[in-house]
Specification:
6 helices, mainly alpha, 172 residues
Amino acid sequence: MTLSNQEIQGFKKTLIMQKKEILENGEAEHNENNGLSEETGDLTSYDNHFADLATELDEREKDITIEDAARERLELINTALDRIREGKYGICVDTGEEIDRERLEAIPYAIRTKEAQDRLEDRKEGNRTETEASFATGGEREDDRIRTVDDLQEEHGNSTRIPSSEDERFDD
């Protein structure tokens, strides 16, 4: 199931089009952001309501996330184009096995088989600490200075936690 030169050239064309699209969208976004800041930019933020500033911050965070994803995708596309030049396109970087044609059609910048990608993601997931995997704060903490709102409210009142029968504070 080795890819033919014609198929590889088709994938190369697709990758170049995707790269061009990312670069054009990035340039358009950059120009749009510059135009908006010139139109709405103030010398100070004193007269802006904090909710307006929060909305602007939220939008900027979304833009940064989108830019980061585009940058990562561009890097993957460049890697795939390099692999075409090296004659290694369609070969898994981890296993040396051929990447399924269907996978390359869906993700032309894929550098791993689905199985190898799944193993990589499982390893990454396994390396996450328990605090990264969950927002839960129960149990012992290394640093007692870090406390949740519920911890503070439970200690000082207005807690959202439902008292248990063992909780002495709520017994009459």
